[in-house]
Amino acid sequence: MNQGRTDQCLKSINSLAISFQRYPFKYLLESDIQCDLFGRLRLEINEKISVPSSSESDYTLDLINSEYLDRFDLCCLNADVIESMSESDFQPNGKYDEYIYHLPVLLAIELKYIKGKYRQKGDFQKFLNDADKIRNSKFRSKVSSSLCICFIQDESVFSYHKSTYGNCVFTEVDSISELDNLYVVTPSSVYCVVKM
Fold first, then answer.
1. Cβ neighbour number for residue 192 with a 10 Å cutoff
2. Pair 129, 193: CB distance under 8 Å
3. Tens of pLDDT, residues 16-68
4. Count of CB atoms within 10 A of residue 145's CB?
5. 11: pLDDT strictly greater than 70
6. pLDDT tens digit string along 102-160?
7. How far apart are CA 84 and CA 86, in angstroms?
8. Sequence-ordered list of residues with C-beta below 8 angstroms from that of 30, at least 6 positions apart, any chain
9. Of 115 and 6, which is predicted with more confidence?
10. 172 exposed, middle or buried (CB, 10 Å; 0-12, 13-18, 19+)?
11. Which domain of life is it from (predicted)?
C-alpha cells in the first residue's frame, strides 16, 4: 500500500512542477507553493487513519499533514507502520496524547522558493541545508523517505546558483521520480542535485 501512496505523492509533486513551469508567477511566495502542494496531496491521498486516544474516542487523522515532526513542510504519514503499532506505542505524555504529533512518516518534504531575480547565495544554501535537516533530525528514524525541492522562478538566478555551487552536480531529468534526493524546478527544467 505504501508504494501506491508514494506514487500518488510523486504524481502530485510533478503536477505542481508542471504548473510552476507554465505559470511561475502564479506563486509569489514559498507558502503559495506549500499550500498548492498540500491541496494536491490531500486530493490525491484523501485517506484517514484512526489512532487510539486516551479519552473516549479515537483520533481520525489525515495522512497528509504540514509542519510535522521536526517542522517538515509537508509529509505523508506511514499508515502501514502506524496500523501495526501496539497499544503501548500510544501512551500519553502526562495528560496529553502528544504521540499524535510524532507518528511515523512515509515521506517528508522540504520546499524552498527563490523568487524573481533574487541572487542571494544563502537562499540556495538554505535549500541544501534542508537535506541535512531531514538527515540529522532527531526524528530521522521515523521518516522512511524524503524529498527536498527548490523552485526557482527565474532561469538566470538558477544559472547563477549553478555556477556558484561547484560542490553540486545538477543533472537535468524528466521528472521528480527518486526519493531521498534534492531537486530544483525552474520554468524550463527539472534538475536532480547531488552534493559532492
1. 16
2. no
3. 999 999 999 999 999 999 999 999 999 999 999 999 888 878 889 999 999 99
4. 19
5. yes
6. 999 999 999 999 887 766 667 788 888 888 888 888 888 899 999 999 999 998 888 88
7. 7
8. 111, 112, 113, 151
9. 6
10. exposed
11. Bacteria
Q: The C-alpha cell of 73 is what?
A: 513542510
Grid cell in block for residue 162? 549553478
